[in-house]
Amino acid sequence: MFDGVFGESIVGRAREKGLVKVDFVNPRDFSTDRHRKVDDRPYGGGPGMIMMAEPLFRAIRDVRSREPGGREPWVVHLSPQGRRFDAAVAAELAAKGRVVLVCGHYEGIDERLASAFDDEVSIGDFVLTGGEIAAMAVVDSVTRLVPGVLADEAVQAESFFPPAEGSCRLDHPHYPRPRVWRGKKVPAALLSGDHGRISQWRSRAAAAATRRKRPDLLRSKEES
To answer: Which domains does the chain have, with CATH numbers?
Structure first.
């Protein structure tokens, strides 16, 4: 299910250029069960199945051994119980160099494997069938921050200002041609040719958009 997403667009081109490398590891390949089983029922009862520790442990160990003497990979468990994934976390992961994303499935993972993870990340307070979709979102977001994948100008113009700027605001609104669309005009400041005026308008518009759409971002900045 990953091939289509990671073979197209920005991620696909980054892989073709050798800027990022994405490998896929199937825990079933590390199962000691003749049926390649990786899940079992939980002790104490309850609905659903739990991913067993041993196949995942072996899979993680195998990935760690692939580059002996190289940078140790940062192992991330994708889980709804993890810290919230955002632009700052994406920047952290991009700086790690090697990242292993462990996709949960079923009702969860054997708690005894927790010590094998360096981090636990959630893409939101909702439930998915498995961690694969979360992994796609994380890889896409992190790939954009890898040097050379996007032009510097494109990175600076992301929907969230980069954490390095100390900002926690949404991007400013954008207006392409035509100047008037169904009676709605492009703001005059953007047509002025005055870079100072344009910059000031964009800054104010970004702040206004953040207050209107995502006031929680402003609260988070004030609380930190």
So the answer is: 2-143 (3.40.1280.10), 168-223 (1.10.1270.20)
Strand, coil or helix: 103: strand
Q: Which whole-number Å values give the CA distances from 30 to 10, 35, 69, 160, 175, in the listed order?
A: 32, 11, 23, 40, 52
Place of tokens 């971002």: 217
Q: Indicate the pTM of the whole model.
A: 0.82
How many residues make up the chain in this entry?
224
Q: Are 87 and 93 in contact (CB under 8 A)?
A: no
Token pair belonging to 186 = 């492009």
Contact (Cβ atoms closer than 8 angstroms) between residue 20 and residue 143 = yes
* Residues 149 and 139: beta-carbon distance below 8 Å: no
Dist. CA 175–CA 183, nearest whole Å: 14
Residue with token string 């703001």: 187
* Other residues' Cβ atoms within 10 Å of the Cβ of residue 137: 15
Task: Give residue-wise pLDDT tens across range 75-94.
Answer: 999 998 899 999 999 999 99
Place of tokens 């994948």: 149
